[in-house]
Amino acid sequence: MILYSMNCQLCHGPKGKGDGQIGAYFDRKPADLTSDTVQSLKDQDIYMVTMQGFGTMPPLAENLDRQDGWDVINYIRTLK
Questions:
Q1: Is the domain 2-78 a CATH 1.10.760.10 member?
Q2: pLDDT tens digits along 22-46
Q3: Which of 39, 46, 31 is nearest to 77 (CA)?
Q4: C-alpha dist (Å) from residue 27 to 10, 22, 31, 52, 55
Q5: Where are the domains of the chain?
Q6: What SS3 class is residue 17?
Q7: Alpha carbon distance 71, 80 (integer Å)
Q8: Which residues pair with 7 in a beta bridge?
Q9: Which pTM value belongs to this model?
């Protein structure tokens, strides 16, 4: 997915494992989006983290409109 590649892949990696190119530079590794912990979250919770940010993850609301944000969430669901 293009939106994931542009906005998430550098930190979370191409398969969502938290092993992106710049993810290694953070003190806290980016979340493994394929993990049971993330996959068990409600869609709304993942959406809020994506759009508002959490911890070292920046908010993506300036990069993604509402529909794009939900498209990213739907893509994250396919990673498991």
A1: yes
A2: 988 888 999 999 999 999 999 999 9
A3: 39
A4: 15, 11, 12, 20, 11
A5: 2-78
A6: coil
A7: 16
A8: none
A9: 0.91
